[in-house]
Amino acid sequence: MCMTRRVSIFLVALAAFMIFEWINLGFNLADGHETSFYVVHGVLIAVNILLALALGAVGVRGWMKGRA
């Protein structure tokens, strides 16, 4: 599959935004909720960071392949 540099840049930027957004959410969770609330949000944060890392890896691979 061919990927343009524009798409590669978009994927890397989206990955960076997702990582920033979910880490920020993790730090901004308010106190006083039940443990299940924190467990669910912790799982959401972890899954979304993994997805962001995968998107970033695809974007970087597309960028590097476009250079060759």
Can you characterise this structure?
This protein is mostly helical and about 70 residues long. The protein has one domain (about 5-65). It contains two helices and no strands. The chain has helices spanning about 5-25, 35-65. α1 packs antiparallel against α2 (about 35-65). It is elongated. The model has no long low-confidence stretch (mean pLDDT about 90).
Average pLDDT score: 92
Strand content: under 5%
Q: How many helices?
A: 2
Q: Give the low-pLDDT segments.
A: none
List the secondary-structure elements in sequence, H or E: HH
Count of extended strands: 0
| Ends apart, CA distance between termini | 15 Å
Helix content: over 70%
Task: Indicate the multimeric state.
Answer: single chain
Structure in a nutshell:
The protein contains two helices and no strands. With 68 residues, the protein is an all-alpha fold.
Map the helices and strands.
Blueprint: H1 5-27, H2 35-67
Features:
single chain, 68 residues, mainly alpha, 2 helices, 0% strand
